[in-house]
Amino acid sequence: MRTIQISKAIINDQTYIALSIEKNSPEYPLILQVKGRTWRSDAKLWLIPNALENWNSFKSVFENYRIQKTDEAKRLEPVQKLNQQKNPENFQNNERHNLTIRSLSEAQNKAIARMTEQLVIQKYSPNTLKNYVSSFTEFLVYHQGKDPQSITEQDFRQYILNKIENHHISESTQNNIINALKFYYEKVELRPRFTLYDIRPRSPKKLPGFLSKEDVERLLRACTNIKHQTILKIIYSAGLRVGELTRLKTRDILFEQGLIRVKSAKNKKDRYTILSPKVAKATQEYISLFQPNYWLFEGQDRGKYSERSVQNILKAAVIKSGVDENTTVHTLRHSFATHLIMNGIDIRTIQTYLGHESIKTTEIYTHITDKMKSKIKSPIDDLDI
Question: What is the pTM of this model?
Answer without folding.
Answer: 0.56
